[in-house]
Structures are given as C-alpha cells and as structure tokens.
Fold this protein.
Amino acid sequence: MKIKFSRPKSLIDVETHYCAGCGHGILNILTAKVVDELGIRDKTIGVAPVGCAVLAYKYWNFDVCEAAHGRALAVATGIKRCHPDKVIFTYQGDGDLASIGMAETVHAANRGEKITCVFVNNACYGMTGGQMAPTTIVGQKTTTTPLGRSPESGEGWPIKMAELLSGLKGVSYSVRTAVFNPQKVMQTYQYIKKAFINQIEGKGFSLVEVLSPCPAAWRKTPLDSMKWIEDEMVKYFPLGVIKRE
Amino acid sequence: MSKGKNNIKLSVFELRIKKDWCKGCQLCLVSCPQKYLELSSNLNKKGVNFIQGKEKNNCIGCGFCFFMCPEGCIEIYQK
Ligand SMILES: Cc1ncc(C[n+]2csc(CCOP(=O)(O)OP(=O)(O)O)c2C)c(N)n1
Ligand code: SF4
Ligand code: SF4
C-alpha cells in the first residue's frame, strides 16, 4: 500500500500538549509540511514564541530557537543576518506578536527583514488562561473583559495586524487566512508556502496571519470554536491577500 | 472505487488512526464528505472516545480529515 497523506518528516512522531481542537496543532503540522515540500529541512531555523506554542521545538524536526516573550522577530533578525542562506521563520501568538512584542514586530517588518512570520491569532492569551489580547474582538468575553471587550470603556479596538503591517514599505507579503474548514486549511498551507518561497527568493518580510481556535479559553467546544471563527471573527478580520509584491 | 466480491463497492483507501493520540475533538468527523468517521464507544488511554472508520469503508481519500486533525493522528493509504 502506498501512503497518500502522511505526517510530514519535519514533524517528530510524538503527541502534542495542545488542548483538543486547538489550531496550534493544525498549524504546527502545516508549517512542517511546507518545510518538507520545499525540501529545506536542513536549512530551516524556526523561532518559537512564549505562549501555548512554546513547546513547538518538541514537535518540529528541524532547528528551533526559543525567544523570550514577544522577541521572536528580534531573535530571528539576528539569526537571519548571521545566516543569510538559512530559511528563518517565527511562529507567534497574538499576545506575543501584537502585545508585548509589538515593537519588535513592527520594526522587523519595517526593516524588511527577510523572515517569514506565521502569526496565530486566537483572539486571546491562551496559555495564561484566556485574557484579552489586542486582537480580542469587540464584545468578546475574556477573563479580563468579563462584560465583553468594549472600546467605549477604554479597552480599544481589535488590531488588524495584517493590514497594519502591510502599510510598511519593508513588508512584501501580508495575508490573512483561517483554519475553520479543510478548504481553508489547505489555503493556509498555500499561503505559508508562498511566504517561505518569498524569503527564499530574497523578498522582504512575509506575514501569514491565521485565525485559529482556542476552545479552552473561549469556553467553547472545538466545533463551536470553528463556527465562531467563521461567523464572528471573520467579520472583523477579513480573509485574503492584503499585500503581495 | 473498485468492485469487490458480490459487486460491492470497495474503497481503495485505508485510514490508519493513532487512536491513543486522538483527543475526540471531532474536527475530522464533521469535515468528512462521506460521513465515514464515527466516535468509538470505547475509550482510548486518554479516556476519550476516539475516532474510527465506520464498518462500511466509503473513504474517497480526499484528505480532509488529515488536514483538520490537530494531532496528526490520521494517515491515509492507497491500495
Ligand atoms: C515577559 C513575560 N511576560 C508575561 C509572560 C506571561 N505569558 C506567558 S504566555 C502569555 C500570553 C500568550 O498569548 P499568545 O501569544 O496569544 O499565545 P497563545 O497562548 O494564545 O497561543 C503571557 C502573557 C511571560 N511568559 N513573559
Ligand atoms: S489553551 Fe488554547 S491555544 Fe492553548 S493549547 Fe489549548 S486550545 Fe490551544
Ligand atoms: S481531528 Fe484528530 S484528534 Fe480530533 S477527533 Fe479527529 S482524529 Fe481525533
């Protein structure tokens, strides 16, 4: 029997620590699949975040560096500048990339660092118990916005990172996608692949923002979480290519 | 699909599921266009009703379950 769909070689054969139905599991696999497909396992270096994906280096079968909270793109800048021939990507949550790491993110993008960034937007801080993130949508209940996020009471509006970064000259590719059904997962795979190819071709900063479920913090079942992304999150965070050079 | 004994349609695809890794999230189950997957009435070592193929194999090998599974516990083989 020949194998038609198999676990990527860039993935170690272990179980994950993620909660049932967590989008990180899907995205760890997709990233590994892209590395397999492009045949770059021996020259890829990932930079893992602080957040639920902090242990991603236990799952990826290539070199991974762990950065302090929010600093993934600063660390990735250093690695890429020392090793311009290697393929460097960061994998970051919204608390990591858009909150504590906002400065590192904006400046790495603005400098046009030749890095690929996989940005997992689950509209909350998953690891620490579901607090509000900059990407929490208006009205969304979290442990720190128990009445629902309200811009009127000073909690601000959800930050659209893919649009925000696309305004910077250094950014060559910026897309937003989601993982709520198999078609979207396959499309996400294509976007991540494109973002890696951009880097290999020497283009500037590439961002793939992915709307991804956190059933545990959202207090929803995995299936309801996917539905919530499709019905509610995409209203604030439209999907598609925002910038391509 | 190939025709087997008694002219019954047989799938040429076979799912191999690491049942002890399954967390029972059902993302694969609802994505299957053939409605081939079901939750077992037995528990795996995590204490979860794991995913299995139904008795009649009508899998078309689309890979939707493979792409949705956060655990990567489904692999698809072809005869
Ligand atoms: C400097 C620092 N501040 C705060 C924390 C606590 N902390 C750990 S994970 C996290 C938020 C992670 O959220 P996100 O990046 O959205 O990732 P998710 O867990 O949702 O995937 C925070 C605030 C920390 N580890 N280090
Ligand atoms: S808490 Fe949320 S983000 Fe973290 S592993 Fe669980 S579902 Fe995934
Ligand atoms: S998607 Fe994976 S973990 Fe979830 S029920 Fe299906 S086989 Fe189990």
The helical segments of chain B are 27-31, 64-68. Chain B has a mean pLDDT of 92. Chain B has two helices and six strands.
